[in-house]
Design goal:
Blueprint: E1 2-6, H1 12-26, H2 31-38, H3 40-45, E2 50-56, E3 59-68, E4 73-81, H4 90-104, E5 109-114, H5 119-127, E6 131-133, E7 145-150
C-alpha cells in the first residue's frame, strides 16, 4: 500500500534519482535541477519548502515538492514517479496530499510549470482544479505552460 511520508535524510537521494529518471526520459536535466536535487535540504526545506515521498512497502517510488515563493504562494514541483510504478495512482496521491497539506498551512495558491506534450500530467492537474495562467519567460527551459490552483 502506498503512503505519503515527509522528507528525511535517509531518503535524500530518492528525489534526485526519481527526478533524473523522469527528466532524462522526457527532457534534460537543467542547471537549477542539479543544484536543487543535489542539495534538497538546503535548497528546498531550509528555504521554507516541503518534500514528500510516495512510499510503497518501504520503497520510495515517487516524490513531490512544495517550493516556497512567498508565505502564501508555493510552486508544486519536482514531482516524479518511477516508471516501474506508474499506473498505481502514486501521482494522484502525491498531488492530493500536497493540496491538502497546503490548505492546512493556509497557503493561498499553488503554481506549477509543465509542458503541453505531457498530456497525462496536464489531465491530472486539470482534474485537481489547476487552470492555465500567463507564464513568465525563463523559469524552466522545458516549460511551456504555467498553471495555478487557488486554495
Amino acid at each position: 500500500m502506498i503512503k505519503i511520508i515527509d522528507y528525511s535524510e535517509q531518503h535524500k537521494e530518492a528525489i534526485k534519482v526519481l527526478n533524473y529518471e523522469w527528466l532524462e526520459k522526457h527532457f534534460k536535466v537543467e542547471p537549477n535541477d542539479v543544484v536543487q536535487l543535489s542539495n534538497p535540504k538546503q535548497e528546498i526545506i531550509d528555504k521554507g519548502g516541503f518534500i514528500f515521498y510516495a512510499d510503497n512497502d518501504n520503497e520510495i517510488i515517487g516524490v513531490a515538492c512544495l517550493l516556497k515563493i512567498t508565505e502564501e504562494h508555493f510552486e508544486l514541483g519536482k514531482m516524479a514517479v518511477t516508471a516501474k510504478y506508474q499506473g498505481l495512482r502514486a501521482g494522484n496521491l502525491l498531488l492530493d496530499y500536497c493540496i491538502r497539506f497546503a490548505q492546512e498551512k493556509q497557503i493561498r495558491s499553488l503554481v506549477l510549470y509543465s509542458n503541453r506534450s505531457l498530456l497525462p500530467a496536464l489531465y491530472l492537474y486539470k482534474k485537481y482544479g489547476f487552470v492555465e495562467i500567463e507564464m513568465e519567460p525563463g523559469h524552466y527551459e522545458r516549460a511551456n505552460i504555467k498553471m495555478e490552483k487557488i486554495l
